[in-house]
Design a protein that fits this description.
- The protein is mainly β.
- The protein contains no helices and nine strands.
- A seven-stranded antiparallel beta sheet has the order 2-1-7-8-9-6-3, with no helix packed on it.
- A hairpin with a 2-residue loop joins strand 1 and strand 2.
Length: about 120
């Protein structure tokens, strides 16, 4: 008999407000490093860069109103805090919402997707 287990769900907060209409979230963390190549060694290692965390959130859009209007944060003047709870851990990042995208089509849900970029982060 197979050992079945329950798998995690993620919960997304923006500035301490839960996104209850969140449909998907993707987190990408990068070192920002650059490959170092030399004639003798070929690939010789990595040169340190600027690490960052990039988060993409897709939200369903209720007919009454947007749950979150990312446009108010795209001015890059307002720092946004994104917190994600998953697998019993928390990831919190401060940064900026850099763009958003609304889409709707026949026989498809209305979606509002936004991209966030912040500093390095780790699950706590």
């Amino acid at each position: 008999m197979a050992n079945l287990q329950q798998y995690t769900k993620a919960v997304v907060y923006v500035n301490s407000s839960v996104l209850s209409e969140e449909a998907s979230v993707t987190i990408k963390r990068t070192s920002g490093s650059q490959p170092v190549k030399t004639v003798a060694k070929g690939y010789a290692g990595e040169s340190p860069g600027s690490p960052m965390t990039e988060i993409t959130v897709s939200n369903a859009v209720p007919s009454a109103d947007f749950e979150l209007n990312p446009g108010q944060y795209i001015n890059l003047l307002d720092i946004v805090e994104v917190t994600i709870f998953a697998a019993g851990r928390t990831l919190t990042v401060k940064g900026s919402i850099i763009d958003d995208n609304f889409s709707h089509a026949v026989d498809s849900e209305a979606k509002l997707e936004f991209n966030f970029r912040g500093g390095p982060s780790d699950w706590q």
